Queue: 2 jobs
Job 1
Amino acid sequence: MTKLRKQSCANVCIIRNSFLSLRPMVTISDIAAALGVTPSTVSRALSGSPRVKEETRLAVEQMAAEMGYERNVVASNLRKGKSDIVGIIVPRIHRNFFSNVIGGAESILEAAGYCVLICQTHERLEAEMKALRTLRNNQVAGVLISHAIGARDGKHILDALGSHIPLVQFDRVFSELPGAKVVSDNFEGAYAATRHLMEQGYRHIGTLAGYMNSEAYAARLEGWRQALRDGGLPEGEVYYDTIVRETGFEAGLKAIDAGCDALYSAGDFSALGAVEAARSRGLRIPEDFGIVGTANETFTSLMTPSMSSLALNPFEMGRQAAQAFLEGADGVRVVPMELKVRESSCRNHSENQITHTPCLK
Amino acid sequence: MTKLRKQSCANVCIIRNSFLSLRPMVTISDIAAALGVTPSTVSRALSGSPRVKEETRLAVEQMAAEMGYERNVVASNLRKGKSDIVGIIVPRIHRNFFSNVIGGAESILEAAGYCVLICQTHERLEAEMKALRTLRNNQVAGVLISHAIGARDGKHILDALGSHIPLVQFDRVFSELPGAKVVSDNFEGAYAATRHLMEQGYRHIGTLAGYMNSEAYAARLEGWRQALRDGGLPEGEVYYDTIVRETGFEAGLKAIDAGCDALYSAGDFSALGAVEAARSRGLRIPEDFGIVGTANETFTSLMTPSMSSLALNPFEMGRQAAQAFLEGADGVRVVPMELKVRESSCRNHSENQITHTPCLK
DNA sequence: TTTCCAAATATAATCCATTTCATTGTAAAA
DNA sequence: TTTTACAATGAAATGGATTATATTTGGAAA
């Protein structure tokens, strides 16, 4: 009886092997059969359990290597209820900022044995929800997200993701959501940028402010406002919802008509638009009109005149977000920004190597 | 007996439900139990099989919606042996070219119901192999890849990926590998760029040639060479392995010392380096020295003087690669390049709106 | 009325790794 | 010698969906 069973098992093995030549799918059962042990032992041996004899582990590892075994992670994930995939959701990967955040996160996550699934939302809430559901259905180990502009609040996020998957928000965050958050020091950064403009002698400083449903942009607006206040200047003009070159251009014209001699822009592309607006009105930069952008996009250092920009530290933000996920720690991590002073805001040459004065919040 | 079994089933359901409140994992078995049918019927109903009564299908769909069911794709993938994930492997996602390819591929794949897993190799063969294994282990539906510079040939690729996963190569391809390929028309593009320089009156045109283990760079070199030949000019200087700003700068200096009055560069960053080299030698651009780069990076249109560049069409390449995967068709797809004529190569003003003359290969 | 076919559904195997619980064997303690 | 404890491994259940095969049912044809 026992012999018969062995016989039939052998047959099964032969059949399996003939399949193997077609597609190389070695399972732990194959290894177990080859060694005369059970799949559970093989599983334990391969996953580093202390509950197998060292000798057995070596035999299993050797046989696994010999047969070209590779763990079927799909099956493994199903059983364990989670995968080694971490999802990252960003508005647009081709934005320098986001691709660097991804790079930073990846550098940490890859070393920790995770791989990274990237989703773009194109700033649409609907796409964000879909991405969250996709990630949940794939049972990802965690999600790092920077919200689409179209997302108004965090309620929908939890519905779509569920509450058992760790969530780390970065850059654009909703305070009301649980989990870790990583943000730039937007207030302090905008404060420094504005103060720099004041120190360069600009006296009528407006701002291109971005979207107010983003806490990052809101904080930059407040930093700008506080700097003006602390410097004894009157309230300046605010141009909302300016993110891209075109709206930056239009807002730039309005700012010039309103008498501004400088702008702090919460984005680089809108700042570029403002530069073009100033040029179209015959103003010289930085002599007649000063500009500081935000994000330190590649082009800012290559254009003429080179553009001052408040640099985010996306790579570090990505690293921090990944760390927060790995450590499972809640709370807010603040990544400092750095003001890159270039030609567009520097009419006082002795100030070229300015180091900004931190404000007391 | 039957009654007893039903009873115990009811208990099980109640227990399940109490779990449900903790974590919402509704399975097809739950739906089946609620409706008094079997899981197989529910599965068929939800996957659109014609083998269920319309009435049953509606009841299942309604109950699924009511209970908040979402398919466990991990389990589904395990059974079906493949997933709805398509892997994209690129050297660096923050490169404009690659992030746009990804965007193009994503636009097609998402519409077809796939999601996209992105891997970076940082130009390292080792990382490329690891990415391929990761994707295979996750049983992705297909892989789109642009090889790392470190990858010398295609042999290792098949070993790592296996032969049952569709592979589409783009931009940097190995001809010897099976499967679809999508490439830019590098020969024609470089030919047009070089011819443009000749038409602007440059007579000693060198090239910054990139890495010769990449067929794309090799084709650009040949296009440049053929244009010189067809134009009756002698062989020009070739500077290999110049990709980044620094090597472009060094090669630029050498080219100037060798008497070149223009360069066709197979990359934009190296072209930028060459611009700086020319400036450092006091040459005016484009009057004394002409340059055309390749890739149409964002900064090329924003710098001063703006830089002519041979534009790739990365978004379209991504679309084509995704289409090739979806259609399962082998063969090579060629995406045309477009010469963007800007200031750095235009000393003949009547030529500003040049449209390039195609060459006969 | 019986027979047969097709539609609809049920049963059970399958995908593969993991994990709980049970069993065996061996050495140390009583 | 017997009990105790532990190490090592086996057996079987589990995760959730899919699918090959089997069964039931209803209606048409004989």
Note: The interface with chain A takes residues 23-24, 70-75, 77-78, 83, 85, 93-94, 96, 99-100, 102-103, 106, 115-120, 133-134, 136-139, 162-164, 272, 297-299, 302-304 of chain B (CB under 8 Å).
Job 2
Amino acid sequence: MVARIARKEEYAGACRIYLYNEVIVIARERKFTTDDLFRETGHVLLAQGYEGFTFSILAERLQVSRGALYKYYDNKDELISDFMIHEMDRFLAELREIDNCPDFESRFRYLLDLIFKRRTIHQLISSVQQIPRSGNAKVKANLARLDQLHLDMYARLGSFVGQGRREGKLRSHLPDGLVLGFIFQSIMIPNHSGIPYEEWVAAIEDIIRHGIMA
Amino acid sequence: MVARIARKEEYAGACRIYLYNEVIVIARERKFTTDDLFRETGHVLLAQGYEGFTFSILAERLQVSRGALYKYYDNKDELISDFMIHEMDRFLAELREIDNCPDFESRFRYLLDLIFKRRTIHQLISSVQQIPRSGNAKVKANLARLDQLHLDMYARLGSFVGQGRREGKLRSHLPDGLVLGFIFQSIMIPNHSGIPYEEWVAAIEDIIRHGIMA
DNA sequence: GATTAAAGTGACAAATGTGTCACTTTGGGT
DNA sequence: ACCCAAAGTGACACATTTGTCACTTTAATC
């Protein structure tokens, strides 16, 4: 009698498998969760960049054999694009919450906090842009979805700037893209001199608001 | 009789070789100059990043065989670190000219222009930082020299900020590193909306001076 | 035309990354 | 104790990159 899987649910470190006869079978415990996988994927991607990202490095960090990873992803492009969709989803979910803020001023602070918390997303995006568009179907679909998520992000940020203009808070002659670019880029300034975090963030907010000149 | 080279002078596409008896011999013309080599090194490094940089790609772009490149550099780390010293030297030579500007205001405009002209240098630096410090002696020496050049750069930029403070032009509570970081990072903002160059630069200068808020 | 020495080539071996797969391990239920 | 199926392993074949080197080409002088 051949078993057919009806449903498969992953949880911390293991898998519930529901067979055709509704009997629960718990298979061998996994050595790493999808969370582990994505977390390490992010670390390796940030440290090594797209070209330097290999399944060997990832497998070593997860303490599994390279072959085990191929059980989940056929190649690094599929993994990285899947990972990036996951990251963008998380980011967008939090970005949507900006609508709960009543006015532009509180939205500005919320956005700044959010970008600080997710400050690696910029660098990750530039890694993803190195994935060849000519890849396989799964990768193509993922990249298309990412383009969609990007557009969604820009639309939301655009409406944030729009509100700022309507409330007369923003200097009106500055292009939208530049205002947003400034906020995004500022977060990436390396704190070489080791100024305490709170102080550093406050100074960045100040400089975005009013510039460097007296 | 064994020939010994006393001096060797490279010029556009060829090489003058001065032999022990002072007789000039012009060897086979080179297919690429050091300028060509560095220019393409820069392009490939920007397009592919450190890990994606290979002698194969470089050789193809220079229309020579891969073997030819090994006549000049033993491996990519030596080439890239040499190239980066060359870039930093050029940048610093121009940065030193800032002393010819009389006041802070003119220095500010000069620095902005310079960073715009050399806006790739930031990304190149991050590629160079991926070179393993454990490499061979030549690479180690080059990286040490680069650290030196970095310090020189920061010192000069620091004195620029210092003058701004003395002249009372800069908002006094902002940390030096943040002011400089802000100027550097601004240049990297991608102009997605395709705003004309002059307009874009003017808007960036404006936002650096006075921020985004009305 | 012979000689010279640098410039360049292409074939080779070594190292590393990629993808596959038969096999073993595991943790249940029967 | 036996079966099942997913999880994991390690060896294999293949591709790409790296570094070397004997050889050819070139542009001059003798």
Note: Residues 1-7 of chain B have pLDDT under 50 and may be disordered.
